[in-house]
Amino acid sequence: MRSETELTRAIEQYADTVRRICLVHLKNQADTEDIFQNVFLKYALRSAPFEGPEHEKAWIIRVTVNACKDLLRSFFHSRTVPLEEAIRQAAPATTEQREVLLAVLALPEKYRNVIYLHYYEGYSAPEIGALLGKKPNTVYTLLTRGRQMLKTALGGEADA
Amino acid sequence: MREELRQAFDAVHADETLKARTRARVLQAMQPARRAPRWAPALAAAVCCVVAVAGVGGYRLYFTPTSVISIDINPSIELDINRFDKVIRVNGYNEDGVAFADSLDVLYLDYSDAVDQIVASETVTDCLARDELLSIAVVQSNPKQGQEIYDYVSACTDGNQNALCCQVSQEEVSHAHDLGLSYGKYQAYLDLQQYTDDYPPEEIAGMTMRQIHQLIDDCQEEDHDTAQTAETAENSQSASGHHGEGEGHGQGNQYRRQQDCD
User: What pLDDT does residue B74 have?
Assistant: First the structure.
């Protein structure tokens, strides 16, 4: 079990990451709070050491993604709210940012994850495959199609 | 697009309220695990042991008989009574006794209610109507409780010519069950044994109390007659200088039996 200090440090360090993954999967604040509690409680109760900061971050991402999927599968998740409302709750600053987020959140779920992990977190396709339990080729395919769909939605150039 | 996505997601933050609430809830959830002392499992095991020992002790305390009421007419049954005056076992002796015991619903009743129910039962009232003899023997391990039970059953059968009550100690009748007899019937068997050993326990087990007491009375009469004949003969001899000590053996036993049993 981890100390209170370690827990506080992890919340400060990874809260934004968890919040972004929640936004990618969930559409309401109540479920987001459940996921936060779930993920950081698992972190606090984990006794095995991490191999390093990257391992710790990857663990947080994997646990958050799985917790979101579990919640969506369960009967107990709260009602979703419109995408605009979900993005407003996440409070992006500009209209342009809101439009980009709207385009990402409008993608089917299987594309959202890989787009976020590749373009924002900077993971490669094999690393995303390891995180999500998918084959690298599948991740490449999802990235290609997701990028194409985003390009269409945003009307801009899609850089790899 | 990479830069646009980066800027858009950079704008998403977990607010301070969410972080503070998460921290508080996680710490709260961790509390029971943190505060559980190392000796908690040992304490839980000790409590379980105490409960188990108390349970076994309580069970033994409740289910150990301290008195026995032997009710014999021809069905012979015994009620085991615990220290709380409750009937904890009903045993039937001989075929009729087993059937009668099975027909009763007196388990865990107060002995007074159980005796009332048995004395008022159709089986017993029918037997008494046929002029059978009802014997109630109180076998006591606890003298105080034994006396109370004896007082109760005596009052219960008071006025009934065909009922007799007695109290005996456990030592006196300790061999009863070895011979397949109830305590009350064994007591009558011992009385009969003083006059004759012509009747084995197996035969006694099948007799009614009336039959056994009839045999005792017959033996007593016979004994009395023999004693009187002997006394007459001695009296006639006394004229020639001999003095007899003609105390009737049968009378002596009759007196003892009445003292013990009524």
Answer: 82
Work out the minimum CA distance from A79 to partner chain B, whole angstroms. 19
Question: In B, which residues are within 8 Å of A122 by CB distance?
Answer: none
Q: Could you report the per-residue pLDDT of B126-159, keeping only the tens digit for each?
A: 888 888 889 999 988 888 888 899 999 888 877 7
Chain B residues whose beta carbon lies within 8 Å of the beta carbon of residue A37: 22, 25-26, 29
Please tell me the predicted confidence (pLDDT) of residue A125. Answer: 93
Question: What is the distance in angstroms between the Cα of A77 and the nearest Cα belonging to chain B?
Answer: 18
Q: Is residue B111 very low, low, confident or very high in pLDDT (cuts 50, 70, 90)? A: very high
Residues of B in contact with A100 (CB under 8 A): 4-5, 7-8
C-alpha atoms less than 13 angstroms from C-alpha of A60 in its C-beta half-sphere: 28
Pairing assessment for the beta strands B134-140 and B65-72 based on DSSP bridges: antiparallel
Sheet of B87-93, strand order? B87-93, B76-82, B65-72, B134-140, B163-169
pLDDT at A43 over 90: yes
Report whether B20 contacts A40 (CB < 8 A).
no
Each residue's pLDDT tens digit, A2-14: 888 999 999 999 9
* Through-space distance between the first and last CA atoms of chain B, rounded to whole angstroms: 114
Domains of chain B, by residue range, sit at 65-182
A101 contacts B12? CB cut-off 8 A: yes
Measured between CA atoms, the residue of chain B closest to residue A116 is B5
In this complex, which of A45, A93, A159 lies closest to B2 when CB atoms are compared? A159
Q: How would residue B97 be classed by pLDDT, with cut points 50, 70 and 90?
A: confident
Q: Are B86 and B77 in contact (CB under 8 A)?
A: no
- The answer to whether the CB atoms of B11 and A19 lie below 8 A apart is no
Q: Which class does domain A1-91 fall in?
A: mainly alpha
Distances (CA, A) of B78 to A93, A135, A157, B139, B184: 93, 82, 102, 10, 9
Residue A16, pLDDT > 50, answer yes
Note the pLDDT tens digit of each residue in A118-128: 999 999 999 99
Where do the structural domains in chain A lie, given as residue ranges?
1-91, 93-160
A93-160 is classed in which CATH architecture?
Orthogonal Bundle (1.10)
pLDDT on residue B253: 36
